[in-house]
Amino acid sequence: MNNITKDRLATAMFWLGAGLVLLILGTLIAYIFYHGIKSIDWKFITSPPQSIRAGGGIGPQIFNSFYILILTMSISIPIGLLGGIYLAEYAGRSKMAEGIRVAIETLTSLPSIVVGLFGLLVFVNITGWGYSLMSGALALTVFNLPFLVRVSEESINGVSRELAAGSLALGATKWQTIWAVIIPSAFPSLVTGIIITSGRVFGEAAALLYTAGMSSPALDFTNWNIFSPSSPLNPFRPAETLAVHIWKVNSEGIIPDVRRVADGSAAVLVMVVLAFNFCARWLGRLIYRRLTAE
Amino acid sequence: MLKKRYFYDRLGSALTLFCASLVIVLTVSIIYFISSKGIATFISDGVSLREFLFSTQWWPDRPRAEGGPQLGALSMIIGSVLVSLFAVGISAPLGIVVAVFLVEIAPGWGQRVLQPAVELLAGIPSVVYGYIGLSLLVPFIRDNIGGGGFSLLAGFLVLSVMILPTIISVSADSIKALHIEWKHASLALGATRWQTIRMVLVPAARSGLITAVVLGLARAFGEALAVQMVIGNTRQIPTSILDPMMTLTSAITMDMGATIAGTPWNNALWSMGLILLLMSLFFIMLIRVVVRRGVAQ
């Protein structure tokens, strides 16, 4: 076999590999939607689940997932953004910066079940809150923070240095320059990054099993008193999210229509995550065009 | 007026430093808390480290008078190692092939179609992978290959798809970062594209490729729910890839809520958590060594 034939064969192998990845993705998405669409209707996505009988929905689970996402993001975005600003603008090559980078790498590769165990110990037991939305949101913050710090550091590093230099030369302080010049220019990639990490948070389950819990109390969606245990807005009530629900119905297997509920939940979950993905691309491009007037 | 501006300037930089150092505080407290719970097995339950790591005898409820509790986690440790090594065995070659394809074979088409596909694959939540494994792969294995379906095979197939995006994107980045002159020099010497890839590009990107594989391995080792849903969770060392088995992560997921805090069984779960933590620290260190070597060359 001469070298040209070998080269051709190798090229075929590369195309085969790429085709295989596309095939896998296509199969997964098609499978999820083909089975999911059949069980999704208005009643399914709004009604509460059944514990023994068939016919339950996933309304509270969808609400819990979004609520915990909002709580997580409102804790982790400020910290992550400021942390990223430190790394990009102040840290330089100091020992401190090196330590922070090692810590970020460590947190990033930590299995999410270990984050969940830490959450169980600190946010559930030591705080005395029990399984609650807040404990879950704090555990997810631990899970999400390293990614957000990295996203904001990278977005800030992507801003041209001349812009900042111009602002400093006009007499602005470094802090003013960061908020009035650098952050606005980094905004498109910041938004994109934040939405993509939101998708990860939305689909996470292992870190939530033993922090937000695997049950949801009966919720009264007309009760807006956040201190009432039946209010959906109470952050100190247990809350099963959509991702946890998929796991729970399958591992318990009590309800007779596991298959239907799990198919529908998986399809809704994937749809939301895909929506986050597309939204991130689209919004990033839109804001970029607005800012640069291209 | 000027004073106020400088005050805010100082305050701002202090605030950013505070937030950044929170990351260190978190890391240290995770290591501290998990370790302090994880060593209880060895201190208060009197189980030796050797027994925990190298014995398969798992009798957490046996009273002390009858020689218990026995907490040998070997079958779960081997389970975790096997399932993640097999997964990497499939994903590493496939991932590197796809990464080379993205950068060298079809950059245009690859960027437009394959890159977003890889990102979507990375975005699918792990419970969904587990669920597809459970409802599609497990019955398929049961009907067409043999055994009960819940098996090591199902576990590592699910994992290999899950870690594929990590391996592809990290490998592709490291190949992209190579000097283009090396490729040009090789092609100019008359090498074919395949020879260039095999003898110049892949060896030159070696440290990045190893990093990609280690990151994939770390992810596979620590994955809990997707694996738990398809491996059958039988506490035994599998003798064939069609046997059901158990991993450290699946033991923690299933038993943490079913055992009472402070009992030997529960303590053993925290020790397993500690093993997961130590393994993830080990992988990080491994990557640092590989990267440093790569830079030194």
UniProtKB/TrEMBL annotation, chain A:
Single Gene Ontology MF annotation: phosphate transmembrane transporter activity
Gene3D superfamilies, per the entry: MetI-like
A Pfam family this chain is assigned to: BPD_transp_1
Keywords: Cell membrane, Membrane, Transmembrane, Transmembrane helix, Transport
Transmembrane segments: 12-34, 66-88, 100-123, 266-284
GO cellular component: plasma membrane
Residue ranges constituting the ABC transmembrane type-1 domain according to the UniProt record: 62-280
Topology in membrane: Multi-pass membrane protein
Origin superkingdom: Bacteria
Subcellular location: Cell membrane
Biological processes, Gene Ontology terms: phosphate ion transmembrane transport
Record-stated family: Belongs to the binding-protein-dependent transport system permease family. CysTW subfamily.
Listed NCBIfam families: 3a0107s02c
PANTHER family cross-referenced by the UniProt entry: ABC TRANSPORTER PERMEASE PROTEIN YQGI-RELATED (PTHR43470:SF4), PHOSPHATE TRANSPORT SYSTEM PERMEASE PROTEIN PSTA-RELATED (PTHR43470)
Name of the featured protein: Phosphate transport system permease protein PstA
Organism: Desulfoscipio geothermicus DSM 3669
Automatic annotation (TrEMBL), chain B:
Keyword terms, alphabetized: Cell membrane, Membrane, Phosphate transport, Transmembrane, Transmembrane helix, Transport
Pfam families: BPD_transp_1
Protein's name according to its UniProt entry: Phosphate transport system permease protein
Subcellular location: Cell membrane
Stretches that traverse the bilayer: 12-34, 73-106, 118-141, 153-175, 196-218, 268-291
GO function term, MF aspect, one: phosphate transmembrane transporter activity
Similarity field: Belongs to the binding-protein-dependent transport system permease family. CysTW subfamily.
Function: Part of the binding-protein-dependent transport system for phosphate; probably responsible for the translocation of the substrate across the membrane.
Organism field: Desulfoscipio geothermicus DSM 3669
Cellular component annotations (GO), alphabetically ordered: plasma membrane
Gene3D superfamilies named among the record's database cross-references: MetI-like (1.10.3720.10)
Any one Gene Ontology BP term: phosphate ion transport
Keyword Transmembrane: yes
PROSITE patterns: ABC_TM1
Membrane topology: Multi-pass membrane protein
ABC transmembrane type-1 domain location: 77-287
